[in-house]
Amino acid sequence: MSSNGEAIERSHQSEPINSYKITSKEATEDSADASEDSTGRRRSNYSVKKKRELIALAQVAGIREVCQLEGVPRRTMRHWLRDAEKINNFEGPDTRKSIGRLGRRELLPFGQKLSKFLEKGRSEGRDITSSHMIEYIRQEHAEWLECYMADKSSTESGHAALARLCQRFVERHGITQPESDSILTRHSTLMPDMTATACKKQSTKVTLSSNDMQTSTQLNMLECERGDNTPLLFGLDIGTSAIKCVVVKAKGRETVATTNVSLKEVTVSARSNDKIAKYKEGVQNVDQILLAVQRAIEMLPESVRRRVSSIGICGQMHGIVWWCSHAVHESADLLLKARGSCIYKSEDTLDPAWSELITWQDQRCTASFIKKCREKVSSFHTAETSAICSPIAAGYGLASYSHILEHSSHTLVGMDACGTIQDFVAFVLCGHTLSSETAMDTTNAHSWGGFNMNTLAWDSHVLRALRIPFSMLPTVKKPGSCIGHTCTGYTAFGLPFQKPVYVPMGDHPCSVLAAILKSQSALGKDLKLTLVNIGTSAQLAMVLTDADVVKLPFGPKSDSLTRKQGNLSFEQWQNWTKEMGLASADNGDEESATQRDAEVYARLIQLGMQHQNTQLTFVPTLNGERADPDATGSILNLRMNNWSMGDITAALSRGLVDNLFAMIPTEVQALISTQPIIGTGNALVRNELIQRFLRCRLANPQNLHLQTTADAAVGASLAPLLVDYAV
């Protein structure tokens, strides 16, 4: 929940199933305050009318008597008496549970006019979105908008702040979307960045935090002028923890709008026999991902979406999901139409259209199982053919497939296709119904293992060794290949009809592509550079010139290396502060929790900066490694004077960098230290300690260039430019 306590509450008893009610924090707090007293007894909510009656009674009979008679907490009664004048003078409906925020200044100087604009649109039954509000402000209050944007540190932060301000205004004034007995259409939510999906007796909270926006929209208003019909490129990044959309101009590659939705903010109903994915490490709920994609796309202004001319998709690599091709379209359409709200009947649970997603973090493939798989493969391979085949490891698609076949093959009954989660979303988006229409690009195929880099096809020896049917695997295509066009209905996710959809790529290659294109102007056309990304996991990619490649014992012009360790270790510090009672309770206030975590994070880095020369050694392989899933982390050289928080923080940051560089082949280590490095990822951008230890690895510390905008979604949007690309 953000600072103004924004919440989206959905009623399930007396209101239609798709009736959304937007409430302010005070309404939420009053409801919580009135729902249960100190003894756990249930109480009713209080309308403005009831509050007025109790205030009048308390002024005559006294607080104690009224509280005993009505069961109202004394603290609540005192609050009402303190604000009696404002409650009695409230001009809204008597049935309201809240009169809005008391004693606070209006968010906007023209708030009354904006409120009338929204109410007029509501009464006329028109779809009112955040883009409409921003357009109204731009046309009617341009001078205020100019002053407002001038105070912001950047155009991007100004757009994000304005979007949050619009959301706060709507919720503070209690403006609601007209209720309907029908399913809300894709464009009918009052605020597209506030779409909620919830099952009965559940509510979904959408937060906007200035530090870490879990659900957010950024709009470049200068690029969204009315009547502008220039084509735009759409990019979608299906990450492990969030969905991100970006729209860029076809010419100039300037970003027009971005949206971001955290997966944990999307609630879905479960099938009766479904093992909830969120309780299993390394497994995700595909329904949740589809709904998050729907929400992220709908958050984009309609004026921007209708100008989209192509769709590029990327996502988390290595993972695998299976599906029944002929049933996918109907099931996905039903899910998206109902927005995840209790769509499953008992008979539906017997024949699911898709499986759960086994992600790159999955550890069901133990070291012994992987060893057995590799032995099977080696029995079919010569040393020469083995060298050109991508390896098998825990969390990789073919390894997970082999494990399912060996231990739970019954879960694949009825399935006739498989792919990464981004391949599945593309399949849904195109409205495909045949398994032969499933496609995967070379970057994702390589990440699954068992991919022949010479023939750019699945290695038949590996498939025979692991007993994986070739007919189930997707057709491999080069990046930039068109695999279909957007369909109609809900499975189009709100994107325009008949637009080309390009074969999805891996998120890391797309991040590299975005960084390269952004760096070309500064570093030259024939550039060579290294991209280091440290976030949930860590990756390192090198782009080399032809001259450098000739000197190496391997052939590709680029190579990518991955470590499973990222910024997760720092979260343990924050968990410890909660366990020790050093952190105050969240009380549902997500922004306060985010702010507190940011303060803890900053303090740890500050302490670590004072111990950069610590003798402590931290081996951060806490989640194992690809080659050794059973690997564990360790702390070495402990002494009484070197195990402070600062020592451990510094040792951990240095260990992350050391661990990343340890996987670099000796043939290219000299190049790493001399060529420019582009640094991305929240852990690297936010952690000065990691930056310092990374610079220590370079011959020239100035070679490290941090980028916060070179993300995978931008790279995915540029898929049409990759027609002639070859891996």
From TrEMBL:
A single GO cellular-component term on record: cytosol
Single annotated GO MF: sedoheptulokinase activity
The entry's keywords: Kinase, Transferase
Keyword Kinase carried by entry: yes
GO BP term (any one): glycerol metabolic process
Top-rank lineage group of the source organism: Eukaryota
Cell membrane in keyword set: no
Positions of region (Disordered): 1-45
A Pfam cross-reference name: FGGY_N
Database matches in InterPro entries: ATPase_NBD, FGGY_N
Domain Carbohydrate kinase FGGY N-terminal: 356-511
Family designation: Belongs to the FGGY kinase family.
Protein name as it appears in the record: Ribulose kinase and related carbohydrate kinases
Organism lineage: Eukaryota, Sar, Stramenopiles, Oomycota, Peronosporomycetes
